[in-house]
């Protein structure tokens, strides 16, 4: 297992994993037609842009095992004045789940945030219906930071939940 910063040539693999993960996990939570017919192309364009012209506060880390992309995390340092650094994406290939890769990626994300934005908190947003993800974050001492409605790319209004840690160090401590 090896974690490294993403490079431009990773964009298609990241996009495929991201879209496939949405298709598997968000079935019944997002519009079926969107998941079946549009999510692949939208994610491909998004990741090509993110890795061609990254924001100055963007970090993207990939986890590989024997040269295979098993997961990735994308975060934006100091994204919110109130909440701090946002973990925008965390996805692990379905066949690789249960091996601790999500926890490893969160630890690496916390390390990245601690290095670059140590004075702010760290948070993420989860679809209300994504029960396994919510349980995972709560197992890592995430604090409940409230509900909101997300206007998804498919046009749906989706209930979501925000979880936070007071600092990158707090998340890092929870992953060890």
TrEMBL record:
N-acetyltransferase domain span: 1-176
A single GO molecular-function term is: acyltransferase activity
The main enzyme category here is transferase
Classification via Pfam families: Acetyltransf_1 (PF00583)
Keyword set includes Cell membrane: no
Q: What is this protein called?
A: GNAT family N-acetyltransferase
CDD domains per the UniProt record, alphabetical: NAT_SF (cd04301)
Which keywords describe this protein according to UniProt?
Answer: Acyltransferase, Transferase
Recorded hits in InterPro entries, A to Z, give:
Acyl_CoA_acyltransferase, GNAT_dom, YpeA/RimI_acetyltransf
- EC number(s) per entry: 2.3.-.-
């Amino acid at each position: 297992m090896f974690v490294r910063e993403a490079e431009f040539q990773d964009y298609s693999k990241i996009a495929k994993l991201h879209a496939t993960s949405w298709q598997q996990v968000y079935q019944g939570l997002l519009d079926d037609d969107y998941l079946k017919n549009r999510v692949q192309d939208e994610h491909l364009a998004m990741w090509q842009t993110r890795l061609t012209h990254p924001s100055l506060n963007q970090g993207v880390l990939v986890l590989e095992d024997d040269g295979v992309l098993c997961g990735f995390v994308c975060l934006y340092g100091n994204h919110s004045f109130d909440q701090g650094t946002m973990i925008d994406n965390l996805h692990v290939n379905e066949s690789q789940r249960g091996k601790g890769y999500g926890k490893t990626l969160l630890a690496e994300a916390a390390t990245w945030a601690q290095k670059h934005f140590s004075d702010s908190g760290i948070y993420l947003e989860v679809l209300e219906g994504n029960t396994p993800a919510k349980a995972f974050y709560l197992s890592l001492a995430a604090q409940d930071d409230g509900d909101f409605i997300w206007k998804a790319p498919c046009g749906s209004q989706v209930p979501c939940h925000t979880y936070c840690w007071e600092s990158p160090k707090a998340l890092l401590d929870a992953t060890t």
